[in-house]
Design a protein that fits this description.
hydrolase activity, acting on carbon-nitrogen (but not peptide) bonds; Amidohydrolase-related domain-containing protein; Urease, subunit C, domain 1; alpha/beta; 2 domains; Metal-dep_hydrolase_composite; about 525 residues; disordered N terminus; hydrolase; nine-stranded mixed β-sheet
């Protein structure tokens, strides 16, 4: 088998940049019938004019506009209205189609998309071995494969209408793998954050027989100078442009069950990078930890608050059993939550976890987003995850009461405006408003079964699917047009993914835990 190199995929990503937006003809649909439309070739001005779209703005006023135009200049929305004119713009006739904001995924382990189907939550017995799968796989993949994972992971997100994500990158065991994963995601063109997990210290290799307790302790251990060196390199060499679509975040190794003094030391050093995101997984422990440790009280938010460690950069995922007081201190300090909805359905069976906290977070005034989480085990059709954020409310009595007050906007908001706020980007993305970045999803509506009645939010959150996505723009640049990714052959790249699976899969299987 020939070696798969990052150069191969850098060439592919170069083609993605070079050919973005060069499609010669667009297909415009109405709710009743399809009709041809012409599209002017992109001009050197970089302007884009989308005409006659039904616009689901997802702004604070929840405005919807019919047959309305949007003008994009310099990657930002400069005008919204009827009859807009821009002689030097590329023109897209979107009559009868729905234009909505690009969606936000607040918690996804992107590298795991390489293993899609190896485990699935529809086979709970096998999925219970998730941590062992992860411990085997991270030492068996190489940097080239990490690059592929970032590239295909970002492309699959865009293909499903996600234009901003928080990649919780916990699968990289050395600097070469971390840089490769970051560059792959960067080259995909998706916006958001690459949040590097500190403390990953797995020291065994394929073919080894390893004590399971030892392997588990190394999965996320104490952060060392070697980990800080990786963070330094990522920060200075990969994420050195403050205006880039993809920015840098960190996931500290210290947290639940650690002494607050240790947490303070690590977090202060992490915050010295002046990052927007400090991400963590949070689950309420089955039994309280001792005083002076995170998790002495409930999920640990009050412990962190008393230690002065909470802040507007603190982003926690899951957080399903937070108390009212814990939500209060998060609100007071500007903290954020991402509940992964579809992934958290099974947690209802574990008494110390509980269902998704979306509704309670919103009621408490804490910004909450949605995420896929384990991208190897769940569908990449992001609309399914959006719907799960609503259905999850019905798993507990308090959620039923919240659900009864909802409208479709509330469900979709977790993946758009509030979802953007939950990763500190609501001033940039999440709604269609002048001044914001031109991150759009254009939906066809002519598929049989795509509801024609109701508000635009009703129709999208109830009926939309990946197959309905005609186009995706990020910062005004076309990444998907006419239902196809621009300048990228996903099928060809997936063949590279399959070849990689064939290489490292047997290596991972050769590791024996005892």
């Amino acid at each position: 088998m020939s070696k798969i190199t990052r150069k191969d995929f850098l060439n592919l990503s170069t083609a993605l940049v070079a050919t973005a937006g060069l499609s010669a003809c667009a297909t415009s649909q109405t709710a009743a019938a399809a009709a041809p439309t012409t599209t002017a070739a992109p001009s050197s001005s970089g302007k884009l004019l989308i005409r006659n779209a039904d616009i689901l703005t997802m702004n604070a006023q929840r405005e919807e506009f019919t047959a309305t135009d949007v003008l994009v200049e310099g990657g930002k929305i400069t005008a919204i209205g009827k009859g807009l004119v821009a002689a030097d713009a590329e023109v897209i006739d979107a009559g009868g189609m729905i234009l909505m904001p690009g969606m936000v995924d607040g918690h996804r382990h992107v590298w795991e998309c390489m293993e899609a189907g190896r485990l699935t939550k529809f086979h709970p017995g096998e999925y219970s071995k998730y941590q062992q799968w992860k411990m085997r796989t991270i030492v068996s993949m190489n940097a080239d494969e990490m690059y592929i994972s970032g590239l295909i992971g970002g492309l699959l997100a865009i293909d499903s209408g996600v234009t901003t994500m928080l990649d919780y990158a916990h699968g990289q065991i050395n600097q070469e793998m971390a840089i490769a994963a970051a560059k792959g995601l960067q080259d995909s063109g998706v916006g958001g954050f690459f949040a590097f997990q500190l403390g990953v210290s797995s020291s065994y290799k394929p073919g080894d027989t390893v004590d399971l307790a030892r392997a588990d302790s190394e999965r996320i251990a104490t952060t060392t100078e070697a980990h800080w060196a990786i963070a330094d390199t990522l920060h200075k060499e990969v994420f050195n442009d403050p205006d880039a679509l993809l920015q840098f975040g960190l996931c500290p190794a210290s947290g639940m069950g650690n002494e607050l003094a240790l947490i303070k030391e690590e977090w202060e050093r992490a915050r010295s990078y002046d990052l927007q995101i400090l991400a963590a997984h949070i689950h309420k422990p089955a039994t309280p930890h001792p005083a002076g440790y995170m998790g002495y009280r409930d999920s640990g938010m009050l412990d962190l608050a008393d230690a002065g460690l909470l802040g507007p950069d603190y982003h926690i995922s899951h957080a399903n059993r937070l108390t009212d007081d814990e939500f209060r201190v998060l609100r007071e300090t500007g903290g954020m939550v991402c509940a992964t909805a579809m992934g958290e359905f099974p947690y209802m069976t574990a008494a110390f976890r509980g269902p998704s906290c979306h509704g309670r977070a919103r009621a408490a005034g804490v910004a909450a987003g949605i995420g896929i989480d384990v991208s190897l085990a769940l569908t990449h059709d992001y609309f399914e995850h959006v719907r799960a954020g609503f259905w999850n409310l019905y798993l507990e009595p308090a959620g039923v009461k919240i659900a009864n007050s909802y409208k479709s906007y509330d469900a979709l908001d977790f993946a758009t405006n509030t979802g953007a706020k939950a990763v500190r980007l609501d001033k940039v993305v999440g709604s269609i408003e002048t001044g914001k970045r031109a991150d759009f999803v254009l939906l066809k509506t002519d598929r049989p079964g795509f509801g024609r009645l109701g508000t635009l939010a009703d129709r999208v959150v109830t009926f939309a699917a990946r197959e309905d996505i005609d186009s995706v723009w990020i910062a005004g640049k076309a990444r998907k047009r006419n239902g196809e990714m621009v300048g990228v052959d996903l099928k060809e790249i997936m063949q590279k993914v399959y070849a990689a699976q064939d290489r490292y899969g047997p290596l991972a299987a050769s590791i024996n835990f005892v």
